[in-house]
Amino acid sequence: MSYILGVDVGGTFTDLLLINETNGETHRAKVPSTPSDPSIGVLEGISKICDRAGISQADLSHVMHGTTVATNAVLEGKGAKVGLIVTQGYRQILQIARSFVPGGLAGWIVWPKPTPLALLENTVEAKERISAKGEVIEELDEPAMIESLKYLAGQDVKALTISLINSFTNDSHERRIAELAASVMGEIPISLSSKILPEIKEYERTLTTVANSYVRPTAAKYLKNLEDELTKIAPSARLHILRSDGGLMGVETASSAPVNMLMSGPAGGVSGALWLARQSGYKNLLTLDMGGTSTDVALVQDGEPRIGRETTVGDLTIRASSVDVRTVGAGGGSIAHVPELTKALRVGPQSAGAVPGPAAYGKGGLEPTVTDANAVLGYLPVGLLDGEMELDYEASQTAVAGVAQALDLDIYKAASGIVDIVNENMFGALRLVSVQQGYDPREFALVAFGGAGPLHANALGRLMGSWPVIIPPSPGVLCAYGDATTRLRSESSRTYIRRFSSTSDREIEKLLGELHQEASTELLGEGVSADLQEVTYSVDVRYHGQGFEVTIGLSSNEVSGAILEIIGDRFAKEHERLFTFALDTECELVHLRAVVQGEHPKVSAEMIAQADSDASSAVISTREIYVDGAMASASIYDRRKLRANNVINGPAIVTEMDSTTLILPGHAGKLDTFGNLIINPISAN
């Protein structure tokens, strides 16, 4: 037998999910993350889960890995020292940036401008010029360039970015400078803007390529070490890395273009939620991934997650395709506090993290967190991770008592207030990906996962009007499930600015075909034959004279017909959905893009045993909990003992190894064939 392993490294835990490719049987494990070297936690987890499944590590055929290595390098400011080469006259491109300042009224007064990832003293100019049409106006001054490269070598830069004006139309000068750099600076990693982002807008292109260089040494070293260790324990296993857009890429591609995995972790959760919900027939989803530090939310329509053209990590916003995920500082470890000045309860964004963690974890944490509030309210079991982590209820009560005293409330009302506030924070994030984008959340199911998501899901479904609320099996390791069930993906793009009247259907068909071939080549290198590849296309369109674009998708069978007419119709509808109006103005193409994907892994969803509606055999105890402003008796269920068609009436708590689910009064959860817990208001059941 062969096994697929999904691995997701989070801030607190490293999650693993092992899937038997033959029968879909799953095994799961969680181990503490090791921030100093994430590969240590990954390898410890692999050993643990293989022992639990009773298999040899050599039986692994694929390891799909979602990693935050590149993300953390940006957030912690621990990337490489980057040298930057630009066209003469553009040396301060990163310092000038874009004239946009976040924040509300007068936000510019207090906004600290982020420090560029490539400093001005490490930026040099190339004497050269290429026109917007790709014509060489001024040849590259190679002797001067060699002197500049010697200067950068003296600055001890660890990675090099080459980003010349208009190189997206002609990359000859960028490639020549790379050759010179290799001879002057040795084996320094070099990123070319014409390879990383061959599109117009020199600032975004430069910033994105610099970000790639910034994280490249760290990411490449980590991936090489992990691949080397995997080769020792599982010689036949192939390692693939999750991209920000939810696809997979090979180690070589990930090492050279790690900017494409900055949102690797959140993308895995969306992919896993989609795969499991699809088994139960749900295609319109809002996803809620609540971990220890933050919560990620996203929207899936007609079985496809919304893919954005920008990725934001901390203060950095780059041009790279990623699942449109919004993140808020609301997690199980979010700290509750009452400022002395306002006496108003606040929750987050500060987090207790993995060390020391919530007070309930018994690792020395003293500050009250969301986890502690849930413990006080009675929602958490005595021990997490199948009893491997015993909770300290007394420590939680002591921590939350400080908030209660500051607010002059009893401890239950204070704990309930903490939970209500964190729910409102997540409610706001869910509205950003639904209402603000023109979608009615009442038309979407809410899929909740992560270690803390199922505890808050029922309340958020009630706030959003999103039913049913779906709690998949193994919700705490669903990101790892997504890693294990997604497929290889490659993307190729090109800037092509033309009014509709200045191009033709056949010209666009020809260009999209070329992009298809470029994207296909990468997958061929990963062993995916052309007949197993699936291609889709997208174009960025705007009204002529407009300052931004809207992305329109095309299927493979639409590029041989009236392409411009299809694009025009879809653009008008999408523009009206987003902005409530469409114009009788000529449209203009800006970018063309081809996305090639491999076949889905041959993994079948595991089905659970059938039974009737009576779930009493899964009850392990009862407990008094504080819910909806009063004490109530709640039954505690062991999810492993539940069967398909079992119905659980709230108030109730469902426990499992990696998460805990709260079902509120007036609601009921029903198990489906695939083990998903489907929660609805009782009136809707």
From TrEMBL:
Residues 506-673 form the Acetophenone carboxylase-like C-terminal domain. One of its GO terms (molecular function) is ligase activity. Its EC number is 6.4.1.8. Residues 205-491 form the Hydantoinase A/oxoprolinase domain. Keywords: Ligase. GO terms for biological process: glutathione metabolic process. InterPro entries: ACX-like_C, ATPase_NBD, Hydant_A_N, Hydantoinase_A, Oxoprolinase-like. It is an enzyme of class 6 (ligase). SUPFAM superfamilies: Actin-like ATPase domain (SSF53067). Residues 5-183 form the Hydantoinase/oxoprolinase N-terminal domain. The keyword Nucleus does not apply. One of its GO terms (cellular component) is cytosol. The keyword Acetylation does not apply. PANTHER family: 5-OXOPROLINASE RELATED, HYPOTHETICAL 5-OXOPROLINASE (EUROFUNG)-RELATED. This is Acetophenone carboxylase gamma subunit. It comes from Acidithrix ferrooxidans. The lineage of its organism: Bacteria, Bacillati, Actinomycetota, Acidimicrobiia, Acidimicrobiales.
